[in-house]
């Protein structure tokens, strides 16, 4: 009999309280953890269950933990007490507009960073197989710049922890040599391009060890504007097979994601990561106020289906949150993904259990997030182009990895 999958769920009342202050996602954290708890997913499972779950109350990061990625001057401005340094510094560090200083910002930034870092440390220490931190996933923050509702890039901080970790289990490379360094893959499902994470590792000496792949909406005018968010152009001097971008058009539905999986699966197979950090932003779901995609939770190509396919690979996985501006649909999605991680997926017609947030789940009072009538603009021709592009990317990736694995022994 297989031993039960070990799940670490990172959350605490204090963290939920400070995350609930985030101006872009007020109260969302409280709703998410309340629904996961109401479904009984954090209770010790019965004997013979396919999983064991540990609730880990994360300590906050220290200011110097943040400097593993962020610049010291930015960290000082971010953690200023009272919140908000002088107005010139606010402008310099992006602490304005969609990232204003707010009461509780210091506790929030340290709390989110600490949560994702401790989740990564649990994986690195082989104390779990899957770690879940729905309060994390702030993929737009840069080294010295708050951006897109993101103040601290906990995704990067977690990736750096895993980059230093041992490979698990020790794998054999194509040449028959023991892999010396872990390989870490970042997979971003948020409707917005994961610019902050890609920027952290592009050309940063991590070649062959960290690969980022962002699937996002390609629509005109959608945040963030970036020259790197288009389909890879392998003839460009700037092409990096370890910083990949897979843009989709408006209305992307389950049918499109089922097609896109072939590309993601191919990259996963070739890169064969020891660890996968997955940013599960849910602002691409139908009905989200962003209104760009028409993705849903269930069925072939659905969010749960997609995440389950990732679990099929023999890698340890860190699930992070991200965008998601319907707080009840974010709670629905992440409760469902928690059950999928545990190997006991909830059915989509499962009634929402009675708990404090219950009235907000009207009118359906079920787990499902049904599709809207939005048209999927990802044509067969476009998806064939994606496939063909990534076939060439895959060849280059294979060649580069062969070079790097011979370097590392
Ligand atoms: Zn987003």
Protein described:
By secondary structure, the protein is α/β, with parallel strands linked by helices. It has a single domain (5-407), classed as Arginase, Chain A, CATH 3.40.800. It has helices at residues 13-19, 28-38, 63-66, 72-78, 87-92, 105-124, 154-164, 195-201, 254-271, 303-311, 327-341, 380-407; strands at residues 5-10, 51-56, 130-133, 184-188, 210-217, 243-248, 275-279, 316-320. It has an 8-stranded parallel beta sheet with strand order 2-1-3-8-7-4-5-6, sandwiched between helices. Helix 10 links the parallel strand 7 (275-279) and strand 8 (316-320). The mean pLDDT is 94. The structure holds zinc ion. This is Histone deacetylase 8. It comes from Russula earlei.
Count of the separate structural domains: 1
Proportion of helical residues: 25-40%
The structural class is alpha/beta
Bound molecules: zinc ion
Low-pLDDT sequence parts: none
What's the CATH topology label?
A: Arginase, Chain A
Sheet with the most strands, sense and barrel status: 8 strands, parallel
> What is the residue-mean pLDDT, rounded to a whole number?
94
H and E order: EHHEHHHHEHEHEEHEHEHH
Task: Summarize, please.
It comes from Russula earlei. Helix content is 35%, strand content 11%.
Keywords:
409 residues; alpha/beta; Arginase, Chain A; eight-stranded parallel β-sheet; 11% strand; globular; binds zinc ion
SSE layout:
Elements: E1 5-10, H1 13-19, H2 28-38, E2 51-56, H3 63-66, H4 72-78, H5 87-92, H6 105-124, E3 130-133, H7 154-164, E4 184-188, H8 195-201, E5 210-217, E6 243-248, H9 254-271, E7 275-279, H10 303-311, E8 316-320, H11 327-341, H12 380-407
Parallel strand pairs: 1-2, 1-3, 3-8, 4-5, 4-7, 5-6, 7-8
Helix pairs in contact: 1-2, 2-11, 6-7, 9-10, 9-12, 10-11
The chain binds zinc ion.
């Amino acid at each position: 009999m297989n031993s039960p999958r070990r799940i670490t769920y990172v959350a605490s009342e204090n963290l939920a309280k400070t995350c609930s202050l985030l101006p872009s996602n007020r109260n969302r954290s409280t709703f998410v953890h309340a629904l996961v708890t109401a479904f009984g997913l954090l209770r010790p499972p019965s004997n013979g269950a396919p999983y064991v779950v540990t609730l880990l109350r994360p300590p906050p990061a220290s200011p110097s933990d943040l400097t593993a990625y962020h610049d010291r001057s930015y960290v000082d401005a971010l953690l200023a007490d009272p919140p908000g340094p002088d107005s010139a510094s606010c402008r310099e560090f992006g602490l304005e507009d969609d990232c204003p200083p707010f009461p509780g910002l210091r506790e929030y930034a340290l709390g989110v960073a600490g949560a994702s870092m401790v989740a990564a440390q649990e994986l690195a220490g082989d104390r779990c197989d899957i770690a879940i931190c729905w309060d994390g996933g702030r993929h737009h923050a840069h080294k010295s710049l708050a951006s897109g509702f993101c103040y601290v890039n906990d995704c990067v901080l977690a990736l750096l922890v895993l980059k230093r970790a041992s490979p698990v289990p020790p794998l054999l490379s194509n040449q028959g040599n023991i892999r010396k360094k872990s390989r870490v893959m970042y997979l971003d499902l948020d409707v917005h391009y994961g610019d902050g994470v890609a920027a952290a590792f592009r050309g940063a000496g991590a070649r062959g060890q960290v690969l980022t792949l962002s699937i996002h909406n390609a629509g005109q005018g959608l945040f963030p504007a970036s020259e790197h968010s288009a389909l890879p152009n392998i003839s460009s001097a700037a092409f990096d097979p370890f910083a990949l971008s897979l843009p989709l058009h408006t209305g992307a539905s389950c049918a499109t994601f089922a097609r896109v999986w072939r590309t993601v699966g191919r990259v996963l197979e070739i890169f064969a990561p020891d660890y996968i950090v997955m940013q599960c932003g849910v602002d691409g779901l139908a009905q989200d106020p962003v209104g760009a995609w028409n993705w849903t939770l269930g069925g072939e190509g659905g969010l749960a289906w997609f995440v389950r396919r990732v679990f099929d690979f023999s890698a340890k996985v860190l699930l992070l949150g991200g965008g998601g501006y319907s707080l009840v649909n974010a709670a629905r999605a992440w409760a469902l993904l928690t059950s999928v991680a545990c190997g006991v997926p909830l059915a989509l017609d499962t009634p929402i259990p009675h708990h404090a947030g219950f009235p907000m789940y009207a009118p359906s009072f079920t787990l499902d997030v049904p599709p809207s009538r939005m048209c999927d603009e990802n044509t067969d021709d476009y998806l064939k182009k994606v496939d063909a592009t990534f076939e060439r990317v895959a060849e280059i990736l294979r060649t580069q990895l062969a070079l790097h694995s011979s370097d590392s022994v």
